[in-house]
């Protein structure tokens, strides 16, 4: 798991006005909070934070946060951006104990080239993120799902996965990915096209019927004259 380090100072004043002053001095206002403990208002160097944050490989990076000389472990829980220029406006840090088990969401990465793809199959990915529970130091950057053995018609479910030290909280019956036949898509397209042809045929038939009806009416009128 990726770890990052930040120096922070305690903010004596809070509120929108104080936050604006922090930003004007080149800092990002933030909050550090822990379970069953009061939150601490802090500020960090905007340049240092933005440079480090944009290089993160995972949003679940473990943070070594030094607040006025005291080291604390934390997870970066939320980052707020300015909608106009994209600069970071605020950050939230969640304090954790060294061996505390926590719940986070991690992305799903598919690795390998499936046998079914080589045979012309199409991989449909259904789950892109999973909820897991583990010790903070064991949080993976992603859940890697090996699809290399998948053949056409195969599916991978959450219950098929097993990772040491990690408890997957996403429902075990859920499908992660499936390999489908391209003929299924082609058949569906052909069916839609066929339905369209039938509709056009019906429309042409109706026009012919109307034309014939108009001819009959005209003939009747001429006869009656």
Descriptive notes:
With 225 residues, the chain is an alpha+beta fold. The chain has two domains: 3-96, Beta Barrel (Ribosomal Protein L25, Chain P); 102-180, Ribosomal protein L25, C-terminal domain (RNA Polymerase Alpha Subunit, Chain A, domain 2). The chain is built from four helices and 13 strands. The protein has helices at residues 16-24, 46-53, 115-118, 182-224; strands at residues 3-10, 27-33, 40-45, 62-67, 70-81, 88-95, 101-111, 122-125, 129-135, 143-146, 155-157, 167-168, 175-180. The strands form three sheets. The protein has a six-stranded mixed beta barrel. The longest helix has 43 residues, at 182-224. The N and C termini lie far apart (97 Å). Residues 196-225 have low confidence and may be disordered.
């Amino acid at each position: 798991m990726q770890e990052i380090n930040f120096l922070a100072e305690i903010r004596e004043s809070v509120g929108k006005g104080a936050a604006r002053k922090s930003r004007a001095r080149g800092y990002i206002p933030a909050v550090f909070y822990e379970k069953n403990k009061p939150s601490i208002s802090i500020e960090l160097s905007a340049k240092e934070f933005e440079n480090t944050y944009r290089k993160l490989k995972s949003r679940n990076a473990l943070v070594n946060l030094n607040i006025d000389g005291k080291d604390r472990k934390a997870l970066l829980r939320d980052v707020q951006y300015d909608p106009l220029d994209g600069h970071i406006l605020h950050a939230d840090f969640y304090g954790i104990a060294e061996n505390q088990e926590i719940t986070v969401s991690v992305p799903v990465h598919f690795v390998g080239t499936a046998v079914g793809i080589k045979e012309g199959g199409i991989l449909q990915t259904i789950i892109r993120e999973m909820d897991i529970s583990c010790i903070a130091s064991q949080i993976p950057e992603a859940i890697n799902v090996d699809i290399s053995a998948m053949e056409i018609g195969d599916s991978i479910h959450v219950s098929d996965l097993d990772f040491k030290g990690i408890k997957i909280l996403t429902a075990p019956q859920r499908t992660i990915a499936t390999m489908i036949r391209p003929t299924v898509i082609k058949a569906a397209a052909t069916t839609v096209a066929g339905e369209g042809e039938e509709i056009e045929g019906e429309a042409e038939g109706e026009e012919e019927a109307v034309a014939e009806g108009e001819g009959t009416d005209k003939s009747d009128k001429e006869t009656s004259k």
